[in-house]
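Sample entry (433 residues):
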Amino acid sequence: MTESNYLTIEEAISKKPQTVNLRGWVYRERKSNKFVFIVLRDESDIIQCVISKSKNPELFEKAEKLTIESSLKVSGELKKDERAPTGYEVAVTDLEIVQVAEPFPITEHQSPELLYDNRHLWIRSRKLSAVLKIRHTVVGAIHEFFRSRGYYEFDAPIFQPSQSEGGATLFEVKYFEDKMYLSQTWQLYAEAGIFALGKIYNMGPTFRAERSKTSRHLAEFWMAEMEAAWMNLEEVTEIAKDEIRFIVQEVLKHNRKELEILERDIKLLEHYAESKYPTIKYSEALDILNNEYHMDVPWGKDLRTIEEAKIAEHFKVPVIVTHYPTEIMGFYKPPSSENPKEALCFDALAPEGYCEIIGGSQRSLLVEDMKKRLEADGEDPENYSWYFALRQYGSVPHSGYGLGVERVVQWMCGLDNIKDAIPFPRTMIRKTP
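Predicted structure, serialized as tokens:
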């Protein structure tokens, strides 16, 4: 039988032909003296398949050998049955076993660590499959968002000679006879790219050697970044809002079934898709935290997760916070001309406790200021001479930001742990499989 003779389970349920040819894996199995019930899964859905001993004794004997995750092909009559998991079942008239699986190491009740140890098998679960489909939509939405607005995709090297986000979080690697670092961000190279292409974006792997074991951090993750010439802080924050809203809309458009599998609050996502998102300054955020929630956060302190969560909870939609204290920001985030203690930067905070999903800024054009800030951090400004040269040849105002793909996926899916937002997580303590 050729590939064209087979339908996916989703196609079969949608088209409802009288007879179907399906193939997949055993998701669940139950056996009695008269019937073998197989819940078959493929990449699209699950469906119950029934083999009757009285009607097909040979098939019944064959089906009794099936174990969880065995691969098979079935043919049979498609019938509506409200008692079945997806409302339909197949009365099997033919069955071909491709491979009988060995006892599956993952049973119904397992510890999180065992699931991570068997991640190569656990990605078959309905939950993780649903997450990966939503991730697919998120990534596709990001590409569509920027390309539809005239941005060019622009790639930067993974091996980089200097840091941009803090030396303490660098992964040092041997590079022939020298040493280099795995990319913390695409940004510095993007700032070169805008003088050729104007508006650019990128999707790429990012590496941070943060010694963190929290549910919000990965050592290797994917970041979607953008950079644009002639753009100021106010303009770039509006782009960020539009991108977030577009991603939510696309997930709602393409992944309602997956959201239901994950038991996600769809009405809440619809609220995010339709709402306007506020922009407030860091100082306003402190007023809210201190006056309304009595949190006593001093000016100059970076916002912790608990404080970010409270701000987003206050507005109940994604919120942009701008003008953080200059002294705690990266060297490339410039001081405001109106108040040098405030940097022209921003974070986008997601509600429901998911907090920062985007970080960005207008970029500094003040070479001497950047050199002093690098020296204060123990960095040699000479390592950034090529970057500073961008300010010498037709410099213009420009801005950009980075969106954490896994953080957005975690929020869209309502996940407790960011490790479930990526196929194979890498953390301080997790490097296999």
